[in-house]
């Protein structure tokens, strides 16, 4: 293949900088209309238009008036082939600063940005891994050469390398619940490193593998400085959903409570049964906790939820003031809010649950395909 | 919901988006064993090619065939499903459907001609698709003659229709009774108009052109029988 120097690759990591640093970037998304409407790169300073590549087979002249005359243009497609095809045509019109997204939306879906959340006691650290393309959040607690990961994503090498850079050995991988929107990397990482994989037993009724039962009030210690991870049984999104208080200050709320919304109870098919649990967790169980706890959820729904450096967090007391899901006082209204007019299901959520139970073992390509699209775990993720 | 209705919904869903196809995985895809042979004029092998190549090659291939001919595009890139549908919508060529066989997606595309966009009908006796549907559900003895290509017919046709492509009608006219009530249908009423004129010339006395054609048909259908 001949390459010209007139257009260049841009990695998902680089695109993430534009989003987080609020730098302007114009995106020409050449996927088909359905895929674009479903899910795309977003950000306060990101402007995008959609023209499917198959409308540009004759050239890009017809759309030049829709592309700003100055500045960088990033062409995006599903994998990268079509974006290179279109980027080349753009470059041939004499434009400078033409880029294509390396690896396409697949790479965007898989990129994780590590963000430091806090220093913990005795030199410990807490990191959040922001999967910006899909809205998933994972965590790593590091203390004295040991690490625990929470809601580990499929891209386990990222966690492994990060821990290695910090000189820590991953001893525990913990899932707050059986995920339906993404494939957990917790088991795989634990098996590879000889760590312990923890899963709430009530979500593990059908799993085909060995795991450590994560029960209410369980305490997991990371390193020898007693960084405690205290489990709080908090059902509702799933019947086993469990939250953690890390270092007495951080509430890892899984898919129960998000910054701008609350978890949906329907992904395991038992919405009606779990509404009461969800309400009890949010309106009673969490209410007993300190308002000063910093909530760190397992997802974000909108790019506006990203704060400083991309971090997604909020004070629990503030969420009781501002989060619409925590302010529905009528029980019947709450039931309606969490069971009716819910967003579309996450892509392939049934197969993802089966995979996380160990019942099916898709190839890595199939896993990647299953995870395409946004997480849609909150009731407000329209 | 009748079984025919269910089938047609299922087909519609299957052919609408690639997402659904993936969700349905192999269980939603029509088995090849009990399907009518689909006649194609050109087969295009794009197996192993990533986008945009399957569409780029289809565009070139369609330029080499005649209007009305069918191209089979074989691709392994799953994204090709939504893209070929989008491209057909965009260019006006007719997307007939897709079959999966051993991990290969076979997309069928019929090249349109300019005439079909604005059908100019000449045969005087016509009936609407609604009238035909009423007659059929009322039990009228009426033969539905579908004069589209076998590939079009295979993917969806009026439940009781027989298929004789326009190009074969003259040679196979003996299969039809000249005094039978025959409703002739195609996609948009153009080919069926020509078919009606041909049948009239051959002495058929009770024929009607169904308008607008399959594009307006909402009654029971069969497919890939």
TrEMBL record, chain A:
Function in brief: Counteracts the endogenous Pycsar antiviral defense system. Phosphodiesterase that enables metal-dependent hydrolysis of host cyclic nucleotide Pycsar defense signals such as cCMP and cUMP.
Top-level taxon of the source organism: Bacteria
Domain Rhodanese residue range list: 21-117
Protein name from the UniProt record: MBL fold metallo-hydrolase
Organism annotation: Paenibacillus terricola
Catalytic function, reaction form: 3',5'-cyclic UMP + H2O = UMP + H(+); 3',5'-cyclic CMP + H2O = CMP + H(+)
Transmembrane segments: none
InterPro entries noted in UniProt: Metallo-B-lactamas (IPR001279), Mito_Persulfide_Diox (IPR051682), POD-like_MBL-fold (IPR044528), Rhodanese-like_dom (IPR001763), Rhodanese-like_dom_sf (IPR036873), RibonucZ/Hydroxyglut_hydro (IPR036866)
From TrEMBL, chain B:
Record SMART domains: RHOD
Record-annotated Rhodanese domain positions: 138-223
Lineage top rank: taxon: Bacteria
CDD domains named in the record: RHOD, SirA_YedF_YeeD
Family: Belongs to the sulfur carrier protein TusA family.
Name this polypeptide is given: Sulfurtransferase TusA family protein
Organism expressing this protein natively: Paenibacillus terricola
Highest classification ranks of the organism: Bacteria, Bacillati, Bacillota, Bacilli, Bacillales
